[in-house]
Each structure stands twice: as C-alpha cells, then as structure tokens.
Write a structure and sequence with these properties.
about 425 residues; alpha/beta; Cytochrome Bc1 Complex, Chain D, domain 2; two-stranded antiparallel ribbon; 11 helices
C-alpha cells in the first residue's frame, strides 16, 4: 500500500478500488485515466509523444511513461497546456535539454513557476521569450524583445530569473529596469593578484635572507613614518641577525629612560630588550607631519589587510598617474589598490633607492618583495615553527593512529562480540 500511495501524484493515473476478495486487506487496481480529446484548433498537450514501458531499463520497473522528444525538433506552446506548473516545468526541462524551442507568450500561472521554467530552459540551452508574459492569465501581447520591467512578482523573483538566465548562458538581451542608482567608480576596488611567495607552501619556510634585506628596507625607508612598536631587537636574533649584530643595532638608538636619582628623565643607548623606536611621539604629531594622514603601525599590517603580503606588494608597486576624469586633492597620490584610490603616502620605493649589504640588485620589485617577507615574519614570528610542528604531528599521527585503532578493536572486541542470554527462573 505504501508503494501505491506514492503513485498518487503521477499525472494521468488514479487509484480505483478493486473487487472484494477474501483476505486481510483489500487490493487496488491501477488504471489509466481517460484523456480528453482536443477540440478543433487547439494544440494537443502531447502531439507527437509516444509511450512505451520502461522495462528496457533493468533498474526502473515497467511503467507506462511519456517519452519526451529529446531530439528537440518539435516546437511546443505552453499557452494551453493543462496540469499543474510542476508538470509543466518537467516537460519544459525535458524538451529544452534536447534543444527544443518553447514559447511562454501566454503562459498562465504564478511568477514563481515562471522562474522555475526559465531556469530549466536556460540550463538546457533553449531560447525563451519573456517579453510577453502577461499579468493575468489569458492575455498575450507578442513582441520581439525581452523585458523584465513589466514582469509581475517581487524583485526577488526577477533576480532569480536573471541569475538563471546568465548562469545558463542563454543569448538574451535583458532590459533590466529593476531600480537602483548607478554604481560610481569610487565604489570599485582593484584586488591584488595572487603571487607565488616562496613561503606560501604548506611545508615552505620563510626566506631569512629576504627577511634580513626587508629589515634593512624598513630601517632605511619605512621607519621614517611607520612604527613597529610590537617588535623588539631581540626578536631578530636567530632569524635574520646574530646576537652581536642585534646588540649593535640596538645601541645605535637612543632610548628615553628614567627617572634617575634626581627625578629627571635621561637618554641611554638601546638594549636588545627595547622595541623599535617610534618616528613620532604621539598620533597627533604623526598627523601634523603627514597632512592629516596617520601612518599605520606595521607590526601586524600583513594580517590586518585583506590579501596579506599580496596587498602590500601591489600597493608599493601600484602607483600610477590618475586616469582621465579623476581629480585628486593636493598631497594625495593615485593608487588603484588602495581603498578609494587616493592615498596620502608618496611612492616610497623606486629602483636603487638603497644599496643592499649583500650586493642584491635593489630593483623596485626586489625591494617590495623583501619588505613584504619581513612584514610577514613580523606579523607571524612563529611561521616556521608552526609548520615544523605540524609536520611532526603528521608523522607521529601516522604511527599512533593505527596503534590506537588496534588497541580499540582489541579491547572492545570482547564487549561487541558477546552474546546475552536470558534464562528465566525455574
């Protein structure tokens, strides 16, 4: 009976009570419903659709089912198609999957069913005309172009239609009058391209020679405006410098300390425990020196910006002349990768802006690559250690997981294979 109940939704079939027979439960006979003959001038719902039992397929049980023309040579009109919108959608999907052409000029029904039909049409690659979908059933106004401005239903259904049409690749000229103002050029942002960094692999470490050169770029170029108040000189030891080199770098900086015995502040040479010095004493002084713009701290700038080092590299090398029609205030520079395209920082690097200690050619791209690698290390000092520990965990897991699985099967095999018997009392 459960199998027969599932056949109630099949169009063209109904369940009739059978004759009374002896038995615990009555049976039912499955008979086809009589199909009405089409009148003169009307198009038959299934004009050239043959029917044969699907017993040729070993998986599907034998059942009379209409076979749709997958060759797609029969144009079908849905203006007078009977039945529910769900069956219409199935018919259209099968027709257009084979390349058929369907006209929806006078198709009745709700806009939601129309959206389902259009999605099925365009997914199959068929051609459809939506310009004449009427507001009320039975009204048709054929016209050659497609327009969604007068399509009934909410704007959400219109968006669903447009998404289905574009996703299916249908060649339709859409006149989208869905409302809303135009998008201005200032709202667009150019995303940085993804670059193949040497430390981008799952088991790749940072280029420590590049980190050392990047620190030199920061020290000679970037430290004039940007601070790194969360990085100390001792963090350089074992990464890019030795302990003696880190102490020499720290001693070149004068740090304010105190108070002394007299209660006065004094300046002393830096120590490796001191953090990188700030270029400005407070944010107000930084704004006053940069035309109102506050240079951000670079300690975690790579993690704080969408795109990471790709964004920083594109920003440093992306300065160009403003296009025609774009005017900038005095003191601003055009950079398409910066949000708003107007940045207060002048181009900081160019070819041969400095000379590397190891003799590497100081081109603009090399300088940008080195400082981005240094900023990646500054934002994530545990980068190499994290990947090293991950590799160790994977290797140990390959040995421990099979052992733990064997112990689990060994301990629980007794409990899982036991048989419980109930002995009633005598």
């Amino acid at each position: 009976m459960a199998a027969l109940r599932g056949l109630r939704g099949v169009p063209g079939l109904r369940l009739l009570p059978g004759p009374a027979r002896p038995g615990p439960a009555p049976r039912a006979l499955l008979r086809p419903r009589a199909r009405p003959e089409p009148g003169p001038g009307a198009l038959s719902p299934f004009p050239v659709i043959p029917s044969f039992p699907l017993s040729v397929f070993p998986i599907i049980p034998p059942f009379p089912f209409p076979v749709f023309p997958v060759i797609g040579i029969f144009p079908v009109s849905l203006s007078s198609l009977p039945g529910r919108s769900r069956s219409r959608g199935a018919l259209v999907a099968a027709l257009v999957a084979g390349g058929g052409s369907v006209s929806l000029s006078s198709f009745p029904g709700r806009s939601r069913s129309r959206g389902a039909l259009v999605a099925a049409l365009v997914a199959g690659g068929g051609s459809v005309s939506l310009s004449c979908v009427p507001v009320s059933p039975g009204v048709a106004d054929p016209c050659p172009q497609v327009s969604l401005s007068s399509l009934p239903g909410r704007s959400r259904s219109r968006g669903a239609l447009v998404a289905a049409l574009v996703a299916g690749g249908g060649s339709l000229a859409l006149a989208l009058s869905l409302g809303g103002g135009p998008v201005s050029a200032g709202e667009l942002e150019l995303h940085p391209p993804s670059l193949p960094w040497s430390h981008g692999g799952h088991l790749a470490s940072l280029d420590h020679a590049s980190v050392r050169r990047g620190f030199q770029v920061y020290r000679q170029v970037c430290s004039a405006c940007h601070s790194m108040e969360f990085v100390a000189f001792r963090n350089l030891i074992g990464v890019s410098h030795t302990e003696a080199e880190a102490k020499a770098l720290a001693q070149e900086v004068e740090v304010q300390d105190g108070p002394n015995e007299s209660g006065e502040m004094f300046l002393r040479p830096g120590k490796i425990s001191d953090y990188f010095p700030k270029p400005y004493p407070n944010p107000e002084a930084a704004r006053a020196a940069n035309n109102g713009a506050l240079p951000p701290d670079l300690s975690y700038i790579v993690n704080a910006r969408h795109g990471g080092e790709d964004y920083v590299f594109a920003l440093l090398t992306g300065y160009c002349d403003a296009p025609a029609g774009v005017s900038l205030r005095e003191g601003l520079h055009y950079n398409p990768y910066f949000p708003g395209q107007a940045i207060g920082m002048a181009p900081p690097i160019y070819d041969e802006v400095l000379e590397y200690d190891d003799g590497t050619p100081a081109t603009m791209s090399q300088i940008a690559k080195d400082v981005c690698t240094f900023l990646r290390w500054a934002a994530e000092p545990e980068h190499d250690h994290r990947k090293k520990m991950g590799l160790k965990v994977l290797l140990l897991s390959g040995l421990l997981v099979p052992l733990l699985y064997y112990m689990k099967r060994h301990k629980w095999s007794v409990l899982k294979s036991r048989k419980l018997l109930y002995r009633p009392p005598k």
